[in-house]
Amino acid sequence: MPEEEKKIEDYFKYVCHHLKDKEYSFEAKFFDFVARRLFARTEIVGLDELVQQKRSEEAAGKKTITIYIARHLSEFDWQEIQRILAIDNIMACVQAGDNLFIGPMDPLLRHHGGFKVFRDEAKLFSDYWLTHSFYVLIDILWKQKPLRKIFNALGLKRKKPLVINANLARDIYTAYIKQLIEVEGRDILMFPEYTKTDDGKTKYGRSYSGKLLEFTPLLFRMLRDLNKKTDIKLQFVPVNVSYERVVEDQMFQKLEEMKSHRFKKRFTYLVDYFFNYTHWMYQRRKGMVAIKFGKPIALRKKMDFKVRLHEELRKKVGELQVVFPTQILGYAFHDDTTLTETELLSRVDKTMAALKSNHADVRFLEGLSSEEIVRRAYAIFNQNPKRRILTKDRTGDTYTVLRPEVLSQYDSHIAHLFETWHVKDQFKKIIDFFR
């Protein structure tokens, strides 16, 4: 069948998840084992209310599709959220970039609900990962002139790939989201943050800077339009995964360098996966994780005055941030690389006062003095050479940052808590009055 004659559904086999209508208790236990190797403790807040809602609807024969909107700081965001949902048997499909579906990770991600989103032009030889990998290798060899002559002499023909361009990728994505909601009735986990690169391109994915990035309005516009055309109820649930220390924080610079290299970029996420799942072997101290689920936000069927829905959801997600001593220390240093202990403690005091006045979630800081906050953060940042980004002199009077590009991420983790948001509270009250 010629490419132009294909129906949009014909492309679903290249992107689809393999989530089943069954309990994923074994998978939850396995990833719980992984989590215990990576993190000291995971605190879950706000999920009980959502589970109760889903159980009540199930008993009444009703269903509301939940779209989880989450911040994206680490490769472990989806794993930890999905693991927690699996414990209560409410797993969601997970939107993931095609760059993550590498070799045997492809079926593993799909098995746990991952569906593929094409971010750049893609060439596909097969919907089965092993066959596709084989033809990718052959295609690389075919580009070598001596080998090409041999292949031609043997009468072999080069297999032409199916090319997915930007426009087709957008159409597949839109149609598949509609399929998940209207046909399969699946909940979906999405990470809507994006940045603009220097060449004007849009880049989705983890926030390597640690900042809470802007949310794409296109996603929310699509979901709002889809909501008005279906009888199915849709709701957004904001989610924030807060880390005392992001597992791969010191790898971000290396990953960006690899992605900009013509040859190395194809191995970027192999290196990423390898580091993420092996670094626990040499870390001396594990960090904590807090996963907070916000209150559901129902989408209206009639005209909705939420003209900046993406900004409202960004604010809701940002407000769920849990602050750890590491972020206090990062924010205190800001752009400085050397501080005396006296100055550092003074800045920690001011940061804590500002966070409390902004009603930030400082549950892990309650009752701690400035000295204790600094000491706890220093213990996390000053581990073995592979994880050391901060040190102090022998007298203990001066702290020096060894990896400014890493520590600055923790400054950025909480920077949005001091923002002046676009949607003013008074303006929202006026909008809600007319709604």
How many β-strand stretches? 16
Biggest sheet record: 8 strands, mixed
Quick one: overall form? globular
Derived from helix and strand composition plus strand pairing, the structural class reads alpha/beta
Number of domains: 2
Relative strand content: 15-25%
CATH topology of the largest domain: Glycerol-3-phosphate (1)-acyltransferase
Helix percent reads 40-55%
The CATH C-level name of the largest domain is Alpha Beta
Please state the average pLDDT score: 89
Which residues sit in consecutive blocks of at least 5 with pLDDT less than 50? 422-435
Radius of gyration, in Å, reads 24 Å
- Separation of the first and last Cα atoms: 49 Å
CATH architectural arrangement of the largest domain: 3-Layer(aba) Sandwich
Number of helices: 17
In brief:
With 435 residues, this protein is an alpha/beta fold. It has helices spanning 12-15, 25-38, 47-59, 77-87, 105-111, 129-142, 145-153, 166-183, 217-228, 252-259, 268-276, 309-319, 325-333, 341-357, 370-381, 404-413, 425-434; strands at residues 39-45, 64-70, 93-97, 114-117, 122-124, 162-164, 188-190, 193-196, 202-204, 214-215, 233-243, 287-293, 297-298, 338-340, 390-392, 398-401. The chain is built from 17 helices and 16 strands.
